UniProtKB/TrEMBL annotation, chain A:
<dbReference type="GO" id="GO:0009055">
    <property type="term" value="F:electron transfer activity"/>
</dbReference>
<keyword id="KW-0813">Transport</keyword>
<protein>
    <recommendedName>
        <fullName>Probable electron transfer flavoprotein subunit beta</fullName>
    </recommendedName>
</protein>
<comment type="function">
    <text>The electron transfer flavoprotein serves as a specific electron acceptor for several dehydrogenases, including five acyl-CoA dehydrogenases, glutaryl-CoA and sarcosine dehydrogenase. It transfers the electrons to the main mitochondrial respiratory chain via ETF-ubiquinone oxidoreductase (ETF dehydrogenase).</text>
</comment>
<comment type="similarity">
    <text>Belongs to the ETF beta-subunit/FixA family.</text>
</comment>
<dbReference type="InterPro" id="IPR033948">
    <property type="entry name" value="ETF_beta_N"/>
</dbReference>
<dbReference type="InterPro" id="IPR014730">
    <property type="entry name" value="ETF_a/b_N"/>
</dbReference>
<dbReference type="GO" id="GO:0005759">
    <property type="term" value="C:mitochondrial matrix"/>
</dbReference>
<keyword id="KW-0249">Electron transport</keyword>
From TrEMBL, chain B:
<dbReference type="InterPro" id="IPR006091">
    <property type="entry name" value="Acyl-CoA_Oxase/DH_mid-dom"/>
</dbReference>
<dbReference type="InterPro" id="IPR052547">
    <property type="entry name" value="Mito_Isobutyryl-CoADH"/>
</dbReference>
<dbReference type="GO" id="GO:0005739">
    <property type="term" value="C:mitochondrion"/>
</dbReference>
<dbReference type="Pfam" id="PF02771">
    <property type="entry name" value="Acyl-CoA_dh_N"/>
</dbReference>
<dbReference type="InterPro" id="IPR037069">
    <property type="entry name" value="AcylCoA_DH/ox_N_sf"/>
</dbReference>
<dbReference type="InterPro" id="IPR046373">
    <property type="entry name" value="Acyl-CoA_Oxase/DH_mid-dom_sf"/>
</dbReference>
<protein>
    <recommendedName>
        <fullName>Isobutyryl-CoA dehydrogenase, mitochondrial</fullName>
    </recommendedName>
</protein>
<keyword id="KW-0101">Branched-chain amino acid catabolism</keyword>
<comment type="similarity">
    <text>Belongs to the acyl-CoA dehydrogenase family.</text>
</comment>
Length: 256, 414
């Protein structure tokens, strides 16, 4: 594997530590004046790509890591984070419209047709909408094999062996490249970008496309009817007897 | 239930990833009046965000344990050095990060929200590296700085003596040139990192009395005649050792003289200008974290059937604390920028910034403790550590009384 090109999708989302709020109209989560950062699963994806690059460099191979993000101008901050971690270049597909998973998958496909990566890594889902669709849809559009929910990845000549977290335990599969990989939490622990690398990140190349440049139809297919906060948690109750408890579980909680 | 837990574990992991943050979500909201990123450039915000994340993950969960056990976290320091914290304003050819003093201040402030004591030590280590980088020879830079910026080796700064504290220019440690060596005699008091550090930047007298007779030397642990006093037991700053550094016919090679003979006091004072901004920055972090802790507490704690935050006393107190933090931060950042500009009035502005910020931020820690009530006095809560750690900032790097001397001297100069 002499020269591997890895593309990593990096979505800008509301930071995981922010206490999210639903807007007054009940149509979306409040995003104004809220800290954003890279989707943590995408951060794991970026780390994986950089680890593959470093491992190849030790074996006299080469890899190029291309970070890509679709969204408003601020998505460039997320790309800069990926560049500071160690990505070589970045691509920003600018759009201020709502981008649903299918639209993102189509945009990614359009860029992939130009860049021809050997491997595309995405987070298994983004922590804002939890769709868990983009990677799979992209694999379908490209007609590439996919290895989702990866907890371990090993590369060999033009193929990868992936350990996946599935409901019953772990599953190991092998797939030829090019392929789609989506990351699960236990794949790795992302590094901190160092101070000098943060400063150098802004000198790395960043290419910009518009949706029109790529000729992709991003019209939403799904309509969000309502967004609501979870019901407030009720205080506990002390029951008199076991019979009382069983009665409440049966008739109030309706779990028995 | 099992099913529910399973689903939760699958949907929540990212939020728990990377060592769940111990910090409140308060500061995550950009609109807060205590947001330390207001006014910074995008680049500065990036550096700040890295430092705060590092502090949240690597310092904050351990701060109380380090304080309690008086533990020097050398492994965590080295981890930070991999990211560039070991030589923030040291040049890049020797492994430094090559940042300005304003960026450095922002980083120290963010780091100290997680542990003031550990960050303060990092700031002293940085100051020593900067002295060698700025005033040392090329040989000294290449010999010492790569292992200092990586924090493979640690450095301490030795100016204060038992008989020369505020009046530093009367220091009595002597250095007499004998052939290829200087022979140093005397002792240095209250040395942060004393005993655990590998490199000591020492001020000693090569000439006559007064500031012009002082020179600066690099002394290595292991040099003949260098020893250390007992480990001091302190109110705060417990994650770093403090000892006396004793030199008895200590032989230092002539090539370890930094700058020229007689230049030492000027190096020491230039270092202290920056040191004062660094220490003030550490106070800002203590105050920031104390306000965050107070905000968390007053929303949860109820008395008279209302959360403390519903009482006007609490509200006004919090507003005063935020105002005081904002004014301290402005003064520190202005002084930091003046260091970067090499402004002629830098000494008095660094002194005023240190005076104001270390007094005001200590008061903020105390106010936070008061808002915590009895809980604030318990070591289970963090605010007592911020209070004890920040207390010493009013004493060291020149006491706040000396800061008044520096400022008034500049005011009355003709």
């Amino acid at each position: 594997m002499s020269n591997l090109r890895i593309m990593v999708a990096c979505k800008r989302v509301v930071d995981y530590a922010v206490k999210i709020r639903v807007n007054a109209a009940g149509t979306a989560v409040e995003t104004a004046n809220v800290k954003h950062s890279m989707n943590p699963f995408d951060e794991i994806g970026a780390e994986q790509a950089i680890q593959i690059k470093e491992a190849l460099a030790k074996a006299n191979g080469k890899a190029e890591v291309i970070a890509i993000s679709c969204g408003p101008a601020k998505a460039q901050e997320t790309l800069r984070t990926a560049l500071a971690m160690g990505a070589d270049k970045a691509i920003h597909v600018e759009s201020n419209e709502e981008l649903q998973p299918l639209a993102v998958a189509k945009l990614l496909k359009a860029v992939i047709d130009k860049e021809k990566p050997d491997m595309v890594i995405l987070g298994k889902q983004a922590i804002d909408d939890d769709s868990n669709q983009t990677g799979q849809m992209l694999a379908g559009l490209l007609n590439w094999p996919q290895a989702t929910f990866a907890s371990k990845v090993e590369l060999s000549e033009k193929a990868m062996t992936v350990t996946r977290e599935v409901d019953g335990g772990v599953e190991t599969i092998k797939t030829a490249l090019p392929a789609i990989l989506t990351t699960d939490l236990r794949l790795n622990t992302p590094r901190y970008a160092s101070l000098p690398n943060i400063m150098k990140a802004k000198k790395k190349p960043l290419t910009k496309y518009t949706v029109a440049d790529l000729g992709v139809d991003i019209k939403p297919r799904l309509e969000t009817l309502k967004i609501a906060e979870p019901a407030k948690r009720q205080g506990g109750k002390i029951v008199e007897s076991v019979d009382d408890l069983i009665d409440k579980l049966k008739n109030e909680a309706k779990v028995l | 239930m099992a099913l529910f837990l399973n689903t939760a574990a699958r949907r929540m992991p990212a939020r728990l990833g990377r060592a769940a943050s111990a910090v409140s979500s308060q500061i995550r909201h950009f609109s807060s009046p205590i947001d330390p990123s207001i006014g910074l450039t995008d680049d500065q915000k990036e550096l700040q965000s890295l430092a705060r994340t590092f502090a949240d993950n690597e310092f904050a969960p351990k701060m109380q344990e380090w304080d309690d056990k008086q533990f020097f976290p050398d492994d965590v320091l080295r981890k930070g050095a991999e990211l560039g914290f070991g030589g923030l304003y040291t040049r890049e050819d020797v492994g430094g990060s090559g940042l300005g003093r304003l960026e450095t201040s922002v980083i120290f402030e963010a780091l100290s929200t997680g542990c003031v004591s550990t960050t303060a030590y990092i700031s002293i280590h940085n100051m020593c590296g900067w002295m060698i980088d700025t005033y040392g020879s090329e040989e000294q830079r290449q010999k010492y700085l790569p292992s200092l910026t990586s924090m493979e080796k640690f450095a301490s700064y030795c100016l204060t003596e038992p008989g020369a504290g505020s009046d530093a220019a009367v220091l009595s440690t002597t250095a007499v040139k004998k052939g290829s060596h200087y022979v140093l005699n005397g002792s240095k008091a209250f040395i942060s990192g004393g005993g655990s550090s590998d490199v000591y930047v020492v001020m000693a007298r090569t000439g006559g009395p007064g500031p012009k007779g002082i020179s600066c030397f690099i002394v290595e642990k292991g040099f003949k005649g260098l020893s250390f006093g007992k480990k001091e037991n302190k109110l705060g700053w417990n994650s770093q050792e403090t000892r006396a550094v004793i030199m008895e016919d200590c032989e230092v090679p002539v090539e370890n003289l930094v700058g020229a003979e007689g230049q030492g006091f000027s190096i020491a004072m230039k270092g202290l200008n920056g040191g004062r901004v660094n220490i003030g920055s550490c106070s800002l972090g203590a105050a920031q974290a104390s306000i965050e802790a107070a905000l968390e507490h007053v929303k949860v704690r109820k008395q008279f059937n209302r959360p403390l935050s519903a009482f006007q006393n609490t509200q006004f107190k919090l507003a005063d604390m935020a105002t005081s933090l904002a004014s301290s931060r402005l003064m520190i950042r202005q002084a930091a920028m003046m260091l970067d500009q090499n402004h002629p009035d830098v000494a008095s502005f660094c002194a005023m910034a240190k005076l104001h910020s270390t007094d005001a931020c200590f008061q903020i820690c105390d106010d936070s403790l008061q808002l915590h009530g009895g809980y604030g006095y318990l070591k289970d809560y963090k605010v007592n550590v911020y209070l004890r750690d920040a207390r010493v900032h009013r004493i060291l790097e020149g006491t706040n009384e000396v800061m008044r001397m520096v400022a008034s001297r500049a005011l009355l100069a003709e």
